[in-house]
Design a protein that fits this description.
Keywords: Lipid droplet
Distance between the termini: 41 Å
Radius of gyration: 19 Å
Main location: other
InterPro entries: Perilipin, PLIN1
Number of strands: 0
Pfam family, one: Perilipin
Protein name: PLIN1 protein
Shape: flat
């Protein structure tokens, strides 16, 4: 199992111009909606706190599992292999679909 730093497929997807520009557009729309509609803002804030709490709870619950899996090279190798395959698939998609390299507005 190689010990060098692996490229992360999720980070690569998030860095694609089409994905990052879509996320930015959604963030702008969400923020402007909250600013324009006070009632919606209060509902959104309650939702955001719930999501943060659920995320923290999930991380807390997963910590023992992650600790148990960390020393197991086989598991790490399987994750590295899956990530490598996903990166190769992404390479293929980027080659076949050039539009992924452009922001949404283009």
């Amino acid at each position: 199992c190689p010990s060098d730093v692996q490229e992360n497929v999720l980070q690569r997807v998030l860095q694609l111009p089409v994905v990052s520009s879509t996320c930015e557009s959604l963030q702008r729309t969400y923020t402007s909606t909250k600013e324009a509609h006070p009632l919606m803002a209060s509902v959104c804030e309650v939702y955001e706190r719930g999501v943060q709490g659920a995320g923290a709870l999930a991380m807390w619950g997963m910590e023992p599992v992650v600790r148990k899996l960390e020393p197991q090279c086989e598991c790490q190798c399987q994750v590295a292999v899956a990530n490598n395959l996903a990166c190769r698939g992404l390479d293929h998609l980027e080659e076949k679909i050039p539009a992924l390299q452009y922001p949404v507005d283009k």
